[in-house]
Design brief:
Chain lengths: 201, 201
């Protein structure tokens, strides 16, 4: 005995979402039956649009519905500053903080030789050409503080060694409000190495 | 700064699912972008079908795509036995166990005077008529063991008092594999009251 085909299909689709197992998918499918018609229409339409309308910005790789994303379209931002991030989510995060006024560039993944992802696989040429052709003064690397992130950051900074571009990296250290005993030793080591004199602040 | 409209819409729709907040909905929406075209098509189509194709079985209220559900269509089951459950999920659960061979009837909710749900709101007439007109010998009540469930069970058994129908209730007690100290006192009390002589089993 199974649910009717439509519900089985919904369960199967919900299971494709990250972290969703059989039970939760079943709960979602049954809850879907109680959604309003307009939510169903919007949901169904948006799913289709996710394949047809959403594309990558020609300039920065951000997600957008036009050729160029809203941030790249905005010419009142500081075009000396470029922040390199891993994914569109990071752009939203930085924009929520709201104090960065430069542009972004999203790279397609991080260098990870163990997973067979080499520098040429993540299209760094587009990034380097953009930096060189647009008179960018400072590149801020804001990728994940992991081995892959560090490798990628290092590689990008090497590619820009012969230019006048300043390459910086967002600071790593102890997050505010954290108990020091819960911080891992590598972070603690970094926090110690990157200590600042109090009068510097 | 927000995501493109399509992604915003997806986030909004995913948030309508039970237990899904802003962050998870965002993760789902971004993950949706990576789904295959055929999954997207199936998902979108199934959502629409959930409104147009899925209906309640004319006989037992189970979810189905025809007038009558697969279980009610199956005339090889035992038509003396009727199991009364709360929702279509319960039917699937009992069918998975597979040792009940009668028919089911799904009531539309439980009697709950505090929430303003009275006996007339859950269409018990359909159930009672079905029992009386179909020569059913035993009605097994398998609803949630809560105050509402108990009230509803009691009410149904009263409606059938003047008939020859045997009304039974699934057993409550300590679930197998549970430590006794984790079981609530009401369940423990029920388990004690409903004790069975070992030779009975």
């Amino acid at each position: 005995m199974k649910y009717p085909q439509t519900i089985q299909n919904l369960i199967e689709c919900y299971r494709k979402l990250p972290g969703i197992g059989e039970k939760t998918a079943e709960r979602f499918a049954l809850a879907t039956l109680n959604l309003n018609q307009d939510v169903i229409d919007l949901f169904s339409e948006s799913l289709k649009n996710s394949k047809t309308k959403i594309r990558k910005c020609d300039i920065c790789n951000n997600l957008c519905e036009d050729d160029i994303c809203d941030i790249c379209k905005n010419d009142s931002r500081d075009n000396n500053l470029l922040c390199v991030v891993e994914d569109p989510k990071s752009v939203i995060l930085f924009e929520k903080i709201g104090n960065f006024n430069g542009y972004y560039h999203i790279i397609n993944g991080l260098i990870s030789p163990l997973d067979g992802i080499n520098p040429e696989d993540i299209d760094l040429d587009k990034l380097i050409n953009r930096i060189k052709n647009n008179n960018i003064k400072e590149v801020i690397l804001a990728v994940k503080p992991s081995i892959e992130g560090e490798t990628t950051s290092l590689y990008i900074s090497k590619l820009l060694k012969d230019t006048d571009v300043v390459v910086s990296k967002i600071a790593h250290g102890i997050p505010l409000g954290t108990e020091i005993d819960y911080v891992d030793s590598l972070t603690l080591e970094l926090a110690m190495d990157n200590r600042k004199k109090i009068e510097d602040e």
